[in-house]
TrEMBL record:
Pfam families: ABC_tran. This is ABC-type quaternary amine transporter. The keyword Iron applies. PANTHER family: SPERMIDINE/PUTRESCINE IMPORT ATP-BINDING PROTEIN POTA, SPERMIDINE_PUTRESCINE IMPORT ATP-BINDING PROTEIN POTA. Residues 10-242 form the ABC transporter domain. SUPFAM superfamilies: MOP-like, P-loop containing nucleoside triphosphate hydrolases. The keyword Cell membrane applies. It comes from Luteipulveratus halotolerans. InterPro entries: AAA+_ATPase, ABC_SmlMolc_Importer, ABC_transporter-like_ATP-bd, ABC_transporter-like_CS, ABC_transpr_FbpC, Mo/tungstate-bd_C_term_dom, P-loop_NTPase. Keywords: ATP-binding, Cell membrane, Ion transport, Iron, Iron transport, Membrane, Nucleotide-binding, Transport. GO terms for cellular component: membrane. Its EC number is 7.6.2.9. GO terms for molecular function: ABC-type ferric iron transporter activity; ABC-type quaternary ammonium compound transporting activity; ATP binding; ATP hydrolysis activity.
Amino acid sequence: MSPVRSPGAVEVHGITASYADTRVLTDVDLVVPAGTTTAVLGGSGSGKTTLLRVVAGFLRPDSGEVRIGDATVVGPGTWVAPEKRGIGYVRQDGGLFPHLDVAGNIAFGLPFPRRRHRGRVLELLDLVGLDASLADRTPDQLSGGQQQRVALARALALEPDVVLLDEPFSALDTALRESTREATGRALREAGATAVLVTHDQEEALSFADEVAILREGRFSQVAPPREVYGAPVDAHVAGFLGDAVLLPGDADAATVHCALGTIAVEGAHPTGAVQVMLRPEQIIVVPAADSTLLAKVASTTYYGHDAMLDLLVTGDDTAYGSVEVRSRVVGTSVPNAGDVVGLRVTGGARAFALTS
């Protein structure tokens, strides 16, 4: 039985795409449920922008199918032009027309005469968190964050089922990036749009999206909700790519793993025998040396204000593992100094990966 399709859902099946003789995507599958946001996260050259271009219709794939809601827009013998796909597109630089004011930019795709759409323009400005007084300004009179919000308002003007966002926050400074991202998320939710965000920023993907799709060398390594891809990565590469990861040699049985940090419960399916153990730095808790039998020397500290990262040298009694280096994330109000000896304990379970991961 065919699945029930929800209007606005994006479905990509078996997409292979190339530039000249260079293959970029290989047999890619992705389903974005209606009304949700998926972040496609990958490094430079992973194929994330190519995937967005295929969905938007800016690039014809070598093979595969793309569906937008109930309509097939790419498939054998099928090609729907970009302007007929019902998609809103927000570029990295916003792409506003410099010769038009804010109102003209937002109303650009609406029927003539555009002056009749003043009410819709003001509604959209409010939706993206901008004051109505900005309607008559030109793009060069706006901040970078304001320009990106106007670009989003323009993308939402025609009430598209799907909005594609191509690294729209990457050119903004830290404070503007966060506020603009939050405003964009609210606007998309209020509009009920399905969104696909392409980004190389792990924090952005985790905080913005309902699901995160990790793209590596033209294939998806893992597609899951943010807490799952961070807390339960499928392999060591995903673990390291999606934040700081402590990777140690160890030996696993059915329920636990033994490593230089002791015997730790293992979560999820895992191999037994010699494995690679993964913990997040926040799982390694620093305590007074007198309160733990597991001791470490602070090699260095990196202070961020709200928290700090400690590089620690653990010299355990277990000669099978010897001295190991680990990292611990601690709150910024309690940061030991380099050279201090501290105690350690591990909270939560570890992940265990095959040594070939």
